[in-house]
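tool=predict chain=A
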Amino acid sequence: MDAGQPVIDGWYEALRGYALSLPEAVEEFPWGHAAIKVRGKTFVFLSQEDSLSLSMKLPVSRDFALIFDWAEPTGYGLG
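tool=predict ok
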């Protein structure tokens, strides 16, 4: 096991737990990754395969988020 995996798992579970604590939030796995949805609309995708990753729509703050070296647009057209 990678020495960093317990940290990744902890952050993943913290983010997942917070997302699922929101009213009407449900978890689905449409492509093998967790998709947290409210009223049928996905608001975050979570993955913990090799590292922790998440994808979300940022219609207003997208450009600001991209100033960080670790942030990048998704490869499948979500922004």
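The radius of gyration is 13 Å. Residues 31 and 79 are 18 Å apart (CA to CA).
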